[in-house]
Amino acid sequence: MYSRSSGILLPIISLPGKFGIGDMGKEAFEFVDFLHDTRQQLWHILPINPTGKDNSPYNCISAFAGNILMISPEKLFEEGLLEENDMQYLIQKNSGTAINYNEIRLLKKNMLRKAYLNFRTDFEKRKELYFTFLGKNAWWLNDYTLFKSIKEEKGYHMCWNKWEYKIKHHDSHDIDVAILHFSKEIEFRSFVQYIFFKQWTELKTYANNRGIKIICDMPLYIPLDCADVWSNQDMFLLDEEGEKKWIGVDATGQLRETPLYDWDRIKERNFDWWLSRVRFNLNMFDIIRIKHFRKLKSFWAVPAEENINKNVCLMKAKGEELLEKLEKELGTLPIIAEDVKSDLAEVEKLRERFNIPGIKILQQAFLSDEKNSFLPHNYPLNSIVYTATQNSNTNIGWLKNMSSTEQENVRSYFSSGWIHLHKKVIETAWASVARMAIVPMQDILELDSRARMNTPGIYEGNWQWRFDRKMLKKKQWKLLRTITKKYNRQRKNQ
């Protein structure tokens, strides 16, 4: 049944708190309470996998593991795995709101090693849950913990395809030797993942019990230097040395760094990795948004040896067969298609075939005339409207920096002054027929461009923004609660 709802886009790392980065502790639970109290039903987070050197949540080093930077020191203290002075050290070393990743990584790793020693000291009362976790997750955890251990010894700058030949290609004898050599590190990393998923499960359960569903992005592609590529090389278009044979090309002609899938081989494997990945994500989250959904149908690529944008080939994917298998297994697919740059009829047909909603971004609605598909009067019911995304400017930043054409179109559309226009943008999204409406937290807080989460093409200063509780004013809380009721997006019992 069609149900209207609304929510907030906010990564976990952007939550407030005293430990230098947002985590799954007290502030996360209080944010769930904020969503509940303002009548929201959705919390859209960004991927929570461990990241690479650029800190982007979309460049994960595992499609399954959790990002240890999001582990809550307070919850470790509550479990008796840390002492109070361990937390005080973290507080003293971290001030301000912007995330200092280099410092946080070192401090969190030291903290987790202390927690691990305490865990081992009092192992008997915890071992049943721990071994249950290991047994359920061994299919990805074993490869990931070994991958991380090897990378730490060889240096994170070195991609797995530069490792010794037998390790690179999973020679069984050399892998067994490596497992023995890294046994202590593997145990530590397994413990860390156990803690991460324990804390995540507690947070998600709390959110669901308060009527909040979690949406999380699932990038279609994963980086080359990723545990899942290393352990599933046959599933990608790679040569014998683990180098890319083909390079993807996006809609603007830009070459992409991520390896491309060998969809014929994926089909031969009966889509096993992909099915496991989607099942895993739908167990973790209530709804997943597939980034670059369009490329489940087809994608452009160029031979890697040319490394220039010519002789581009259109290659077919087998996403429709994958979705058929998922639909047969799960019924209605709790999936959102993220590909705002695609207006291809075949992609629309793919979405409609599986009743998957697409997204509309209000900031892109004023670049052309009244036929623009991002304008609210053109939305289909089965769509999700975002005022902006993690890659967009804030509403206030956008309004201040838009082109003259946009300004003219905005004035004509809203027929109102500019003083409170950023609020009108949010209300317009809530008033639309789209089944879901989502706004970044920065726009509820009425922040300018300095609060951007990510600026595409800029490789420094991204993914660092966090908010402070003092930023949230009563009038903003009231606006969100009021428009959610006004436009019938609240839960039935509210």
Tell me what you see in this structure.
- This protein has a single domain (5-486), classed as TIM Barrel, CATH 3.20.20.
- An eight-stranded parallel sheet has the order 8-5-3-2-1-11-10-9.
- It contains 18 helices and eleven strands.
- The chain is an alpha/beta fold and 494 residues long.
- It has helices spanning 26-37, 73-78, 84-93, 101-121, 127-154, 165-168, 172-181, 183-209, 227-231, 263-268, 272-284, 319-330, 345-353, 395-401, 404-414, 421-431, 441-444, 474-486, and strands at residues 5-9, 42-45, 213-219, 246-249, 287-291, 298-303, 313-316, 335-338, 358-361, 383-386, 436-440.
- Helix 5 packs across helix 8 (183-209).
- The chain is globular, with a radius of gyration of 23 Å.
- Helix 1 links the parallel strand 1 (5-9) and strand 2 (42-45).
- It starts with a strand and ends in an 8-residue tail after the last helix.
- It is 42% helix and 11% strand.
Describe the global form: globular
Number of helices: 18
Q: Could you say which structural class the secondary elements and strand pairing correspond to?
A: alpha/beta
Fraction of residues in helix: 40-55%
Question: What are the main properties of this structure?
Answer:
494 residues; 11 strands; globular; single chain; 42% helix; TIM Barrel; 3-stranded antiparallel beta sheet; alpha/beta; 8-stranded parallel beta sheet
